[in-house]
């Protein structure tokens, strides 16, 4: 199976403009993500998708592959969909790798690639058991409930499942690791869907797919991930910009 990785990266960001080019201990964020992803041997290709010449030129400088995409995309999913139409070959599946997670582990990408190798999987993603209780009520940590077969039932910024009976044991909570895998034909279909009510309410694009009947399969990872959403996150990780 031909599985490729795409790293969407845009310069414009309300909370952190120029984030992909921020220096993290001598290397930019986008270079660190790219080099981590290169460690996944199951990817047949790895491409940065951007709408900014500064990012594109930098990726070329460190030897990475890059494709220029429209500045009008609303999500990384849409950017990934444009890239596969620009390629001289036809991938079977695409891994959407977040461009703001410089600590992403190759093993996590491999786990998702293995999930996408299943012919019955349309969309795949990773989840992790929450071990820090403060994350359960943190709206920036997306929670997910899956069925007994690993299929996602719902994603929310609220604590799900809700524990109504406080005398019972605390349920196991899982958080969503924001990396997706799509079969090529599924990616082309979901990129054309209109925002759904649940998506608009929670500001989570994966709810659009669920509300349109697509199945999102999950795999459980034990690796922690840390996204850099603002300059303050660099300070939290003892970095500076």
Q: Write the element-wise H/E pattern from the N-terminal end onward.
A: EEEHEHEHEHEEEEHHHEH
- Please write the CATH class name: Alpha Beta
CA-atom Rg in angstroms: 18 Å
Q: Assign the CATH superfamily.
A: Spore Coat Polysaccharide Biosynthesis Protein SpsA, Chain A
* Overall domain count: 1
Instruction: Characterize the largest beta sheet: strand count, sense, and whether it forms a barrel.
Output: 9 strands, mixed
Shape label: globular
Q: Helix tally?
A: 8
Structural class: alpha/beta
Number of strands: 11
Would you mind describing this structure in some detail?
The chain has 241 residues and is of the alpha/beta class. It has one domain: Spore Coat Polysaccharide Biosynthesis Protein SpsA, Chain A, CATH 3.90.550. It has helices at residues 29-38, 53-61, 76-86, 106-116, 184-190, 197-202, 206-211, 231-236; strands at residues 3-9, 23-24, 27-28, 45-50, 66-68, 93-96, 123-129, 143-146, 152-156, 174-183, 216-220. The strands form two sheets. Strands 1, 4, 5, 6, 7, 8, 9, 10 and 11 form a nine-stranded mixed beta sheet that branches. It has a two-stranded antiparallel ribbon with strand order 2-3. Helix 2 (53-61) links the parallel strand 4 and strand 5. The radius of gyration is 18 Å and the shape is globular. The N and C termini lie far apart (40 Å). The mean pLDDT is 92.
């Amino acid at each position: 199976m031909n599985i490729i990785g795409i790293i969407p990266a845009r310069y414009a960001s309300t909370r952190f403009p120029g984030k992909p080019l921020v220096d993290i201990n001598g290397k930019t964020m986008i270079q660190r993500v790219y080099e981590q992803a290169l460690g996944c041997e199951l990817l047949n290709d790895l491409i940065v998708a951007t709408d900014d010449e500064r990012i594109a030129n930098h990726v070329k400088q460190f030897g990475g592959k890059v494709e220029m995409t429209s500045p009008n995309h609303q999500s990384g999913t849409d950017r990934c969909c444009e890239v596969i139409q620009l390629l001289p070959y036809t991938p079977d599946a695409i891994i959407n790798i977040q461009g703001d997670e410089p600590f992403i582990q190759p093993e996590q990408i491999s786990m998702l690639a293995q999930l996408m190798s299943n012919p019955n999987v349309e969309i795949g993603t990773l989840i992790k058991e929450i071990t820090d209780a403060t994350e359960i009520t943190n709206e920036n940590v997306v929670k997910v409930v899956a069925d007994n077969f690993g299929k996602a039932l719902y994603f929310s910024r609220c604590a799900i499942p809700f524990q109504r009976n406080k005398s019972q044991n605390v349920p196991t909570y899982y958080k969503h690791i924001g990396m997706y895998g799509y079969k090529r034909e599924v990616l082309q279909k979901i990129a054309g869907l209109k925002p759904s009510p649940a998506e608009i309410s929670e500001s989570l694009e994966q709810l659009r797919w669920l509300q349109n009947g697509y199945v999102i399969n999950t795999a459980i990872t034990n690796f922690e991930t840390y996204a850099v959403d603002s300059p303050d996150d660099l300070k939290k990780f003892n970095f500076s910009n």
